[in-house]
Amino acid sequence: MYYRYKSKKRNNKIYKVILIVILVVSAGYLVYSFRSYLMFWKYNYSTLDKKIMALNAVRGEQNRIMMLQNLRDVCDKYKEDNPLSPDAFFSSGKVHLMIGETKLAESFSEMVIHEKDNTVSSEAREEFLTAIKDIRKGMALINGIDEEMTYFSLAKAGYYSDYYEQPYIYELIKMIRNTEKIRDVEDVRFYSLIYILNGNADYGVGFLKNHKTAVAGPKGALFMAAAEKLGNNFTNAILINKEIIKSSPGSDAGKIAHLNLGKIYYHKSLYNESLYHLSEAAKLDENDFSIQLWIGKSFYKAGDRKKAELVWKTILQKDKENVDAKKLLGGI
Fold it and tell me: What confidence score (pLDDT) does residue 51 get?
């Protein structure tokens, strides 16, 4: 009887062990099967937005880039494992856009202020194109979008990559009804400028003015001046640039303001005024050949061909491969 009881007790223990093993194996299988979901739970769409917003508080650009790359890897893994999840593609698109922006030589504001062409490296363009592809995939999966700011991300990726024409980017921007969601200074400036570039300067400039942080400081003032100029409001652009010179004499912002005025007066055929401001800009930076190029152009338009030629030849003495100087000399 004792042995029978002992054997029965031993069998019960064996059954319990087997049951525990089955449960552990089953749990392990479930964890393995749904590992991508568990991984992404930490980075679901709302949490991802919070993490992206928190990046602004991260000290050091390199740390910020590393955090973004980590988010990109998570999103890429999730969309690979879950090709029918729209959230995976929307999240990935947003992160790839931000990675692309870190690879730009200048910020959007700096591009506009310095009147640079929208040229990006092949590495940055690849990130923007991936962002477009992922967002469009997410849209296809749900026959729409997850939330309206996704249109904004698509517009920015299309702008930087030159994948979309300006009118289409404008249409994307207009899809945003709740503009209170546009809080970042660079985003405010981007939103405003797209309206200005598409013939709605009143709204674009007004939106910019309503966001004080976007027009604060020398950089904000320079962007505002550029926006007014692009909106063909040259009087306001002149006044703003003059105020910058007055408040920041001898600074880099002052140099850019003088250069801006030189260009505006040049296009208005006021060559004496143009030469004055270009010369003032040159005093602040003798090695900025773009200023010297404009001085030569102003001399040429004013009828002083010899001085123009001398300026451009001097540039080539210092920079033998200066394409613009060669082109201008070749046109004389």
Answer: 61
- For residue 227, give the 3-state DSSP assignment: helix
CATH code assigned at 117? 1.25.40
Both tokens assigned to 82: 């879950």
What's the Rg (C-alpha) of the chain? Answer: 29
Tokens 């060559």 label which residue?
271
Question: How many structural domains compose the chain?
Answer: 1
Give the domain range for residue 168: 38-177
**267 near 286, Cβ under 8 Å?**
no
3-state SS, residue 23: helix
What is the mean predicted confidence (pLDDT) over 227-243?
Answer: 97
Measured CA to CA, the distance from residue 310 to residue 271 in angstroms comes to 17
Place of tokens 């922006």: 101
Question: CA 305 → CA 247, 278, 309, 316, distances in Å?
Answer: 35, 17, 6, 17
In a domain, 82, yes or no: yes
Does some domain include residue 99? yes
Query: Hey, what's the torsion of the CAs at 167, 195, 102, 106, to 10 degrees?
Result: 110
Q: If DSSP codes are grouped into helix, strand and coil, which group holds residue 270?
A: coil
In this prediction, residue 73 carries a pLDDT of 84
Higher pLDDT, 256 or 36: 256
